[in-house]
Amino acid sequence: MMESIKDKVAIIGMGCTRFGELWDKSFEDLVVEACYEAFENAGIEPEDIQAVWMGTAYGPHRGGGIIPPLKLGNTPVTRLENACATGTDALRNACYAVAAGVYDIVLACGADKLKDYGFSGLPASPPSYPEIALSQTRPATPMPTQFALLAMRYFHHYGIDPAEGKRALAKITVKNHHNGTLSPKAHFRREVSLETVINAPMIAWPLGLYDCCGVSDGCAAAILTRPEIARKYRDDYVLVKGLGIAGGDEYAQIPSDFDWVHWEENLKAAKIAYGEAGITTPREQIDIAIVHDCFTINELVTYEDLGFSPRGKAIDDINAGFFELDGGLPVNTDGGLKCFGHPIGASGLRMVYEVYTQLQAKAKARQLKNVKLGLTHNIGGWPGAFTAAVAVFGREE
Amino acid sequence: MVGLVSYGVYVPLWRLDLGILDGGLRGEKAIANFDEDSLTMGVAAGMNCLSNIDRSTIDGLFFATTTSPYKEKQISVTAAVALDLRKDILTADFANSLRAGTTALRAAVDAIKAGAAKRVMVIAADTRLALPGSELEALVGDGAAAFIVGNEGVKVSITDIHSICDEILDVWRADSDKYVRSWEGRFTVDAGYLRVLPIAVSALMKRNNLTPKDFSKAVFYAPDARRHRDMARILGFDMAQVQDPLFGSLGDTGTAFSLMMLAASLEQTKPGDNILLANYSNGADAFLLEGLEEFDGKRGIKDYIRSKRVLKDYVSYLRWRELVEMVTGRRRPPTPMPSASAIWREREQNIRLYGVKCKQCGTVQYPRQRVCVKCHSKDQFESYRFSDKKAELFTYGIDYVTPTPDPPLILAVINFEGGGRMWVYMTDKDQNEVKIGMLLEMTFRKLFTSEGIHNYFWKSMPVRIRKGG
């Protein structure tokens, strides 16, 4: 009998570095900073950690990126990668170990140090089979272009004039940039105008420079325990309400009947998480959502996939300001991937950090009113073969 | 009786405006796109040649070129795989002379006469490079021709062949040379071309008791338009009998040249017509052909000449030929060297462009799968060829960042007629004309080259000529 994770795991501490082009910080520096902030925030000592889950897409193998810098000698450690959902999956696996009662206090950490690669974008990956770079014999498809495929089909499917569609996408960027100005640890912290976004250099039509998120360095970490232990540490701990993750089987790429205006992986991950959390009307029930805006079109489609907007109607909600800080369902209040930055392995936990902070009403200038239920969402990989993750968090009811 | 069963030609889409070259000549020449080479153009001609032909009847493939992408590695076998020919066939590369194409044709005729094969495909293609600024640069063009030679279903018989060999250094490339070299023009023409070709043609005519007036068409190699007229006069042909060599729109396509002109003449050949084919280089080959039946509905050279885009900037041309250095990675790391073992393992999938069709639910799938994407049956598949199927553009992305000699890069998701979906690049495109729903066809191209490994794959392109498969 499958059981829900709801209310079985509590977050008692979190840490997050500033994200950005951190030329003077190593992977290990980032890990130390985020984890020590989390230890302090939880009121525990490093020695209290009984097991570690380390998520990184491009970082050290084994526990090499976390055990040596924190000097957590001989602590059980798992190093994992799950594309852009890596950080969320580190948290998820740590949650299950805690819920199983195997450990009392564990650390989930996500980090990547992308800016040492010397490129402002990620390596192109082919639509499938990229795991061993040497086996790349078929066409490589850079990430922005993969999401341009989504935008072009979305516009075509709903009969949206590309100029109108591009304008709606630009509004997502303007919103996330505004939120970024209120977010002290974000990579990019300045307002941009609609015209700047629309007229920016083209990356992959219709996606311009400002439709693409930042590639950054950063780390985020969480301390997890069971609720009965959490109460000893703090009153405003945050409870895990639902954890959904789904891996695509390349269906979108192979038969010709997939529509390319949604991602099946999103629907499955949301179904699991909503089922666990008891969410039936996400648009009304969720107070804050931090979603995967790697490219603006992906934030738009996520509105629909997660049930925030009706199918084909996301642009109406964008135009109505529904996802802005003072809207009905604020999305990416910390600036999102666009402005907070996107160190692949860290992003999932960075999103949880924002929801955790908002649930504790400590988000200062960008603090929302009356936050009870928050959601994080990642999707990474490539169309048809994404890993999508949806996680729901709340306070003690 | 042995002769031609089918023909196919290929002229690349692109023309170089000769006015932008030193010398400022009028006209244009056909140039291969950056992702084309002699192998890929030969495959394109072969695809045309195979329309309405049962591929399993082909017993051999001879590939003739002086510009093979490999010095050591057979390309006729790669072409045979791309053309989805049988595995138990004879493949051979003919090289090192502009006569390689007609020599291959002769070898095919001889093999069939000897009973070693019933049908042999002969492909000739060239992409010769002239030194920038040289006179030759305006003359050499790129193109390909293919024929199926057989002893059944013959539409034009090859009734006699006369070959001679002649030692001379007139036009050559040393093993390390990138560009074609030649000795002074007056020497190469007087001591070579104009002296030798007539010897072979005269011998052929004499043996068959024919005079020039007995021919409805004469097809012969010439290095340029002036020498072509000189040769017609020397051989005693009226210009009305002579196949237009298309100088000024095609260029000297080297090994493929005389065979492309032969294919052009076949577009008008009627039963009873006598055709002369003569080719020169280190000797000469002269063929006597006779029309038996008309060819119909083929994509001909005229269709290809009409279908063109003109390149008017020389820097792009230099980039396409890798004569200027270009960035390999911008914003993201360059593509790593492809693995020879991975290319080998995926040869049916990448070169033959085979996907699979589920025997349980009928779903057509690419790339090959072990478990059906629809019904989840395991290993219940038959092979399915995509290379000759048309497709519709489902969605696309125009990439302005990825370095390519022909920016922008267009990534396409295409849905095939008969089912199946594929992610491919689009080539020979005009990004302003790309739209969802447009009809596409597949074309064999070079995806990229790294560390001496040419990674061939198929791309999509807008349907170029709407007839003949």
Protein architecture, described:
The complex is a heterodimer of chains A (397) and B (469). By secondary structure, chain A is an alpha/beta fold. Chain A has 2 domains: 10-116 and 220-230, Peroxisomal Thiolase, Chain A, domain 1; 142-213 and 240-394, Peroxisomal Thiolase, Chain A, domain 1, CATH 3.40.47.10. Chain A is 34% helix and 17% strand. Chain A contains 13 helices and 11 strands. Chain A has helices spanning 27-42, 67-70, 86-99, 143-157, 162-181, 194-198, 227-233, 264-277, 282-285, 296-305, 314-319, 336-340, 344-359; strands at residues 10-16, 51-55, 77-80, 106-113, 202-205, 207-208, 217-225, 238-247, 288-290, 373-380, 387-394. In chain A, strands 3-2-4-7-1-8-11-10-9 form a 9-stranded mixed sheet. Chain A has a two-stranded antiparallel ribbon with strand order 5-6. In chain A, strand 5 (202-205) and strand 6 form a beta hairpin. The two termini of chain A are 25 Å apart. With 469 residues, chain B is an alpha+beta fold. Chain B has 3 domains: 3-320, Peroxisomal Thiolase, Chain A, domain 1 (3-Layer(aba) Sandwich); 330-348 and 389-469, OB fold (Dihydrolipoamide Acetyltransferase, E2P); 353-386. Chain B is 22% helix and 29% strand. Chain B has helices at 38-50, 76-82, 100-113, 185-207, 225-235, 257-266, 301-306, 314-320, 340-345, 347-350; strands at 3-10, 14-17, 28-31, 60-64, 90-94, 119-126, 143-150, 156-165, 171-172, 181-182, 217-220, 274-280, 283-291, 309-311, 354-358, 364-365, 381-385, 391-399, 409-416, 421-426, 439-450, 453-462. In chain B, the strands form 5 sheets. Chain B has a 9-stranded mixed sheet, with helices on both faces. In chain B, strands 20-19-18-21-22 form a 5-stranded antiparallel sheet. Chain B has a 3-stranded mixed sheet with strand order 3-2-14. In chain B, a hairpin with a 2-residue loop joins strand 12 and strand 13. In chain B, helix 1 (38-50) packs across helix 2 and helix 4 (185-207) packs parallel to helix 5 (225-235). The two termini of chain B are 28 Å apart. Strand 5 of chain A pairs antiparallel with strand 18 of chain B.
